[in-house]
Amino acid sequence: MMQRIRNNSGFGLIELTVVVIIVGILVAVAMQSATVMVQDARRVETEREIEMLADAIVGDPAIISNGQRADFGYVGDVGSFPANLQALYENPGGYSTWDGPYLPPGLAQDSTGFKTDEWGSLYNYSGGVTITSTGSGSTITEKIANSVTDYTLNTLNGSIRDANDSVPGATYLDSVDIKVTIPNGGGGATTKAYIPDSAGLFTLDSLPVGTHPLRMIYTPNVDTLLRYVTILPRHKGWVSYKFASAYFSGGGGGGGCGGPGSEKLRPVGVGNATNLVTDGCATNYLCVDDVSTDDDATYVKSVGTSYGTDTYATADPTDTTCTITSVTVYVRARKRVKTAYAQVVLRTNGADYTGSEETLGSSFIDYSQQWTNNPFTGVAWTWTEVTDMEIGVQLRSSKSTHPARYTQVWVVVAYTN
Fold it and tell me: How far apart are CA 284 and CA 300, in angstroms?
């Protein structure tokens, strides 16, 4: 008799063990991938949160009103960096200038949540220029500013004249009070007072960022000009104002030519062309209007191998009666590794005129071009033409990855009796 052999289907112990191992490996891989995704999501959210905290401290530069930056955060209201993050949520001690909370709605849902990262660890911040998170096991850092002084110690230069464009002279300089009101860093406000020099020039120092009221008062008549000035980080700006009446005319300012001399005028605003890019400043002219050069700290740089042009409005001259003998435009520039070139630019009567092409050195050097007569008219300069002219630079580099840079532009107007 033949014996029938049965074929029993199913898993044996060995096969079942292999299946369990494979499933375990797949689960482990899936869990590891999920863990990595969660960690990445936490990191991204933490980076977003500390960026919002930084904007709460110093403001968001992308918020613009009437063409100017309008948000300066806690520092703009108080005049100093907060001692801790809690000061962004609640008034740290009866500060009259505090106008918070400074946190966006997504962070201000409770009084403590904004101070912890996505791993539940406290952010590290104690009044400096960085916020850090260590909850992930590594350090995530947000740099708020290069230094505290960039936001608390800035400068504004300016001039004051009367309705006839006359300056105070020695007779009237003591009759002008210039007052700026700023947050004092401790929760209150302070008013700083200045007087102009005989040429009507003044310098306001140690200003925090923000928009501050500025008053110019002709004290004999209590005639007051009220303006608001916006101070940016690392600011060295220029403003010009006039009284509505001719207080100074014939009394020591602009009543006659003071003899041979010269005036150095610096950029005070954007001009006809803005084709170059900044490094260290919000606006091109603020990088190159320095009275004392800061070289590589702030500058404007080229954007390619073809010439790009920037021109700037300049401060108005204080002398309007002498005979102008020459106008000389200067630029302080250097190359960066590769060969680079610059030309000074003078814009007058709606046309641009350039100086000789200069091959730049590796260190900052002053280059210049002089015009004895107005190149548009071919005859001697007038003070109206000087007031209306723009100065600037054309810049290019032989390799776009090594842009040339310039750090100062100014013009010297020479005159005689």
Answer: 7
